[in-house]
Amino acid sequence: MKRVFLLASVLVMSATIFAQQKKAEDLVRFKELVFDFGKVKQNVPAVHDFVFTNISDAPVVIESAMPSCGCTTPFKPEGAISKGKSDKITASFNAVALGPFNKTITVKVAGADLPVQLRIVGEVLTADAYTKYEEEKGKTNKSGSY
Known about the structure:
Blueprint: H1 2-20, E1 28-30, E2 34-41, E3 46-54, E4 60-67, E5 72-75, E6 80-81, E7 86-93, E8 99-109, E9 116-125, H2 127-142
Parallel strand pairs: 2-9
Antiparallel strand pairs: 1-3, 3-7, 4-6, 4-8, 5-7, 8-9
């Protein structure tokens, strides 16, 4: 009987703790959480803006935007974003290493216990492979098929 009571107590406490954690998504809403660059040319930076809106009842501050590696550089807004206003976090990927990539940016919002993760994906091609890809893509678009 003591074990059942102990287990029930632990479950109730766990549920209470998790229910009290505020998520970044409770304060800001991103237009998208994942952006696919598709195929990109090696050594040409790929840049994308992750647009978000403050959906809270007060101004919000983006405390940090931390990349998963040194090949990705995020730029966050400085200062508070007013209620109902939009802003952006710019993700710049250096595209040096060949092959597929899948990188994350962890965004911490002031007042939120849990951050939100943004993701960029794609594939880096050599200059020659990228030129061939663009030529093939152009032929496909000109013929009317996609």
